[in-house]
Structures are given as C-alpha cells and as structure tokens.
Write a structure and sequence with these properties.
Blueprint lengths: L2 H4 L4 H8 L8 H7 L3 H6 L7 H15 L26 E8 L31 E9 L2 E8 L4 H4 L11 H10 L1 E8 L6 E2 L7 E3 L6 E3 L25 E6 L5 E5 L16 H5 L32 E4 L9 E3 L7 E8 L4 E8 L6 E9 L13 E8 L4 E6 L2 H4 L3 H6 L1 H8 L7 E6 L6 E5 L31 E7 L8 E9 L25 E6 L5 E5 L16 E5 L6 E6 L5 E7 L5 E7 L15 E7 L7
Parallel strand pairs: 7-11
Antiparallel strand pairs: 1-27, 2-3, 3-4, 4-5, 4-6, 8-9, 9-10, 10-11, 12-13, 13-14, 14-15, 15-16, 16-20, 17-18, 18-19, 19-20, 21-22, 22-23, 23-24, 25-26, 26-27
The structure holds MU-OXO-diiron (FEO) and calcium ion (3 copies).
The site of one calcium ion has 7 residues, from strand 21.
C-alpha cells in the first residue's frame, strides 16, 4: 500500500491492515438470523444469545415509562445533511476557538486559509481535531483543557505532499497540532472568548517533557537511549477523551498511539507489538524523520505511549505525569469517581474492536484537600467480564491472576486481560458516571467484526452479553450498577440503555431498541457526559452518508438522554464530515462547550480549509444548560 493510501484510512481500517479480516458473512445473512423487532423488544424470545433476550427485557422495562415522558426543556431538532451546526429553537451557538487560532499574540494571523499554520507557530495556536475537554476554575478565571487528537495531513500540510510529511519540519508541525491546549476563556456575555496571552495558556505536545510513575516506570520495557532510566518520557499523543480528577487536575487519554511508529529497518516482531497493532510502516511517516518513532532504533518508545496522563492546567510550569498504574491501551477517556470507603476509582475503555473495559481502584483514599500522593500510582487494575445473566465482575490483573510480572501486566494490559477471560467489547468509547446515582454508562460505538472474527489477541467475539448483534454497525450504550451502590465493588449488574439502529430500514434487532425511532435515530455513540441535572449527553462519530442503512440519520449529532425514562432527543447536528466530540460547561452551567472534529467542506470559515473547532452553545433566555 502506498503512503497516500494509508493516510486516507480510518483508524479502524488502519488496524485492519495489521490484523486482516476474513471474508465476512453477508449482511443479509446476519439480518436473516436476527429476530423481528417486536420479538426482540418483547424480550422473551430466544435469539441465539440469551443475553440479548434478557438485555432487551430490562431495556423494555426502562422504556415502558417513556409514554409518560419526562420530556426535555428544548424542542428536539431534525437531522441535517448540510455543512453547518444546528441547535434547537431558543438556543444560540458561536465558534469559540478554531484550529490555528492564536493563544499568544505572536501567533496572531499565523493561520492562513491556503497554507495553514507555519511550523514555528504550530505550538502557539489551538491544536487540530479537538476532542475531550474539561473546565477548571481558578478564582474568577475559567480555564479549559482541550485535547487535540490527530492530524489530517492532506489538509494540514502546506504543500502538495500527497498527505505525507516530506521533511522534519513538516513532522514537527504535525506533532505540534496534537496534544493538549490549556486556554483561559472569559465570559463576554456572548458565549465566552479566548484570552490571548493569558498566563494559563499552554500547549502540551509530542515534545513536552513528562515523568512516568507507577509500577512500570523505570522498568526495562520503557527504557530508551534518550531516557536510560525509563522515568522521563517525552510527549503525549493522539489525545482522545479526557477526565477530571477529584482534586482538580486534567486527565488526557492517549488513544491510537500505535499509528505513529514505524520501522526503517529490521525490528523484532513481538507479541506486544502485534496485539497493539504496531509494526511495518507508520501511518504518518514520522519514523523517517524522527528516530524516536523508529522501531528499528527505539523499540521501547511505543511502550511510553498509550497511557493516561495527568496535567495541572492551573500551573503552566507543572510537568505532566504518565500514570502506568492505569494500564496501557488505546485509552478513550478516564471517568473518576469515588468508592464508598474513599478510594479513587477510574473507569476506562480501550477503543478497538473486541478489546476491553477497565477500572482502576487506588489503595489509598482521597479526602478533599488531603494528599493525593500515590492515588494514581498505587492501586489495582481490573478488567470487565460481563455474564449473559446480566451480572458482571471486575477481574483483578495481578501476577497471581495472569502469571505475568506487574510491569508486563500494565504495559501489555490487553494481553493480561485476555489471560483472565475479559469480555471482548464493541469498541468501548467514553464512560460517564451518573452524578445523581451510583451507575455508569459506556458507549460501545460499533463493531463490524462482532461474530465475524476474533480480536487482535485471538479472543473470540461471539454476539453475547452487552454486545448482542453480529456485524454491529450501529452501536449501543451499556449501563452497570455496582453491587452495594459502591463503585469500589467487584460485582455489578448491567443492562443496555439504548441499542442504536434504524427502524425505518429494519424490522429486527438492527432497528434498535424501543427508545430509538425515526425522529431521533443515530449511529455510533461515542462521546458522553452527564450534566449536573443527571441527563446523559450523547455525541456520535458514525456514518453520516444518510444513505442505505444510515438513511434518515443525517450528520453526526449530539443527543440528550433521560436515563429514567429512556427517552432520547436530538439537540445538535454537526456539519457533514464532522464528528461531535468533547463536552464541558461554563462554571455557571449557562454555556456548553462542544467539540466539532474533522468538519467537511470549509466549515466554519466558509473559505479555505475546514477547521476543527470548539463551539459555545447557550440559551437565549439565560437559563442553565448543564
Ligand atoms: Fe478517539 Fe475512540 O475515539
Ligand atoms: Ca471518541
Ligand atoms: Ca469514534
Ligand atoms: Ca475522533
């Protein structure tokens, strides 16, 4: 495959290069095996998997209340297929910050619609492909920490390079577009604005010096020529979802880090490299211009990425910390809650087809204002096992349960998860915990390989449990309630909050659950966050062709879910080509900040390159929105 082809692949397709799929069953055959929608929702019919029937039964009990309808305080909007953002009547939106917008006055005017951002200014502007974000408050100041996930070289590179960097400067420019932006924003009464030159403003990129802590720090697995102690890795990359600690720091989650490494010569093909989809040619050719990304020269560098990294956005001089105790995988987000006894619990998903859901539980406890020492470096990593009877358990990953040394368990968490029999999932994206109830939700975005092929470690992926549909192109959201209403418990019960689908195209399980209808349907739930009033906001990253099995679903969107009644209503639609990702609120909850990633056309400027942006959304009457 030629370079310019690699760059056009989705991350899923890139994974597939490393782990090819056999000829799949035809979709028709899958549908034939599916039951009628009525039977599915009735919940009692056998459909290959007992779990499907029982999951459906629980679902229908939650959706039964739907007729009463708690409703929403906005009028749901229709789908859109255009290159614009739409919000409900009575709401306003504006662009807060776009890729290339200056964080410092020296970078003002650096962005050009023809050439993008020059390398020397590339780490002084807002990054590309905005993703997870969180709000922080320091006195009367509002600070946002915002992830920039990846790059679109065909858009971002200034020359006709067919999407591949041609020299070290271009590699540096692409690297600087990723990472994290910390930026102060000020309430101007009109959806906030960026405070250029604020002392809080900061970019954290592939180049930022970090430290590493936890059991794998300093191990042979993470030592490189540049860092023989294995304690001082450089850089964070492919920053996807986010989290906020109880003590007010930012967690940035490194997702598709595998794509940045490649080999210029020989290298040892290990089980670890294979399981994480690393090897051969890198997706962005970084290895050709920067030896850090070259497996032939630095075989351990990939082991220093794929972590949850903690940043203090209120201290621009602070050194970010990579926490190995939370495990290494394609981290989506990190949702921190507290166990009844005060221990810190972090829920995490590994977004790849057939990979796992994890949680970390600290040994120490947190009290407000108390020491946070060791809370993210000394604890136990668990992986989720879902049973078909709607129960589940968190399996500890320890040397005793896995037969692996602790540093191997953490660096190769996927391999450890396979050893204990974790449940292969339909791509776990964001996890959100209900602030009003002891329960949590995970968006299982889709999995075309469900029931078709094993995961990259050879674990089977039968349609079962919370992943009940073969060739699952729509996705679902699983919910679990920890035993004893304690996030520290190792047992839980689960159900499905929603199965996405298309009830106008299908009359079977692919129509989705009963809380999906022609008026609110969507595919591929991804970003999720709870507002303080207990509503679940759902963002999508799916097929926006509005054709075939996706007809009637339109552009990617943001919906609001009532978790008591099951009702789901569409709140926002994104420009065609974009996914909606990242959601946080102003301190007074009157403004929502929403990420619009990889828009199509030339949104939002209407000329030149499309620019990934954070938008602000608020109600015209000044009422709360979050
Ligand atoms: Fe970066 Fe899985 O989304
Ligand atoms: Ca995502
Ligand atoms: Ca996604
Ligand atoms: Ca994305």
């Amino acid at each position: 495959m030629k370079d310019q082809d690699i760059i056009d692949l989705s991350w899923d397709e890139f994974d597939e290069l490393r782990d090819p799929r056999p000829d799949a069953n035809g979709f028709d055959a899958v549908v034939e095996r599916a039951i009628s929608r009525r039977g599915f929702l009735g919940g009692a019919l056998a459909f290959g998997s007992g779990a499907l029937a029982m999951g459906a039964s629980l679902m229908s009990s939650t959706t039964a209340a739907r007729a009463e309808g708690m409703g929403f305080n906005f009028k749901p909007i229709d789908i859109a297929t255009d290159y614009d953002v739409h919000v409900p009547e009575g709401y306003q939106w504006k662009t807060l910050v776009r890729w290339g917008d200056a964080l410092f006055s020296e970078a003002q005017g650096a962005y050009s619609p023809e050439t993008g951002v020059p390398v020397e200014m590339s780490d002084k502007v807002f990054g590309e492909n905005t993703d997870g974000m969180e709000t922080f408050v320091d006195g009367d100041k509002t600070i946002l920490a915002i992830n920039s996930e990846y790059v679109n070289p065909k858009i971002n590179l200034p020359v006709a390079s067919e999407g591949m960097p041609q020299n070290a400067d271009e590699v540096m420019m692409l690297k600087n577009m990723q990472g994290v932006t910390v930026v102060e924003v000020a309430d101007n009464g009109d959806g906030y604005e960026v405070v250029v030159d604020s002392a809080y403003n900061r970019r954290i990129t592939h180049e930022t010096q970090m430290i590493m802590d936890g059991p794998a720090a300093g191990s042979d697995l993470v030592k490189t020529k540049a860092d023989p102690a294995g304690l001082n890795p450089k850089g964070t990359m492919n920053n996807c979802g986010s989290g906020k600690t109880l003590w007010g720091t930012y967690l940035t989650c490194e997702e598709n880090f595998n794509g940045y490494f490649g080999a210029t010569g020989d290298y040892e093909v290990t089980e670890g490299l294979k399981r994480y989809g690393i090897g051969g040619e890198g997706r962005y050719a970084y290895e050709k211009f920067d030896p850090r990304y070259d497996l032939t020269q630095e075989p351990n560098e990939p082991n220093r990425h794929g972590w949850v990294t903690e940043i203090n956005p209120l201290d621009p001089t602070s050194t970010p910390v990579k926490h190995t105790a939370l495990g290494r995988f394609k981290h989506e987000n990190a949702e921190m809650v507290q166990a009844k006894d005060g221990r810190v619990v972090v829920y995490m998903g590994d977004d790849e087809r057939g990979e796992f859901m994890y949680k970390y539980v600290s040994n120490g406890t947190y009290t407000e204002g108390g020491s946070t020492e060791g809370l993210l470096s000394d604890g136990t990593l668990y992986v989720a096992k879902f049973n078909d009877d709607l129960t589940g358990e968190w399996l500890a990953l320890t040397p005793e349960t896995t037969g692996m040394p602790m540093e191997d368990i953490l660096v190769f968490a996927r391999i450890a998860g396979s050893k204990v029999g974790a449940t292969t999932m339909d791509r776990p994206e964001w996890i959100a915990a209900n602030p009003l109830k002891v329960e949590a939700y995970c968006a299982l975005t889709n999995n075309k390989n469900r029931g078709v092929k094993p995961n990259a470690g050879g674990d089977e992926t039968p349609a079962s449990g919370p992943n009940p549909r073969e060739t699952n192109n729509y996705g679902q959201i699983v919910r679990w309630k920890p035993a004893g209403e304690d996030h520290g418990a190792t047992e839980f019960t689960w159900d499905l909050y929603v199965m996405a689908g298309n009830p106008t195209v299908y009359d079977n399980a692919y129509a989705g659950s009963e809380n999906v209808n022609a008026g609110n349907m969507f595919n591929s739930p991804d970003g999720m966050a709870f507002s303080s009033d207990g509503y679940l906001w759902i963002q999508t990253d799916g097929d926006d062709s509005n054709e075939g099995e996706f007809e009637g679903q339109g552009n990617n969107q943001m919906l609001v879910g009532n978790t008591e009644t099951g009702e789901i209503a569409r709140f926002l639609t994104a420009p065609n080509g974009a996914e909606v990702t990242g959601l946080t609120w102003s301190p007074d909850k009157k403004v929502a900040f929403v990420g619009i990633q990889h828009p199509g056309g030339s949104w939002p400027d209407g000329n030149g390159k499309p620019r990934s942006s954070v938008i602000a959304v608020w109600r015209e009457d000044g009422a709360l929105i979050g």
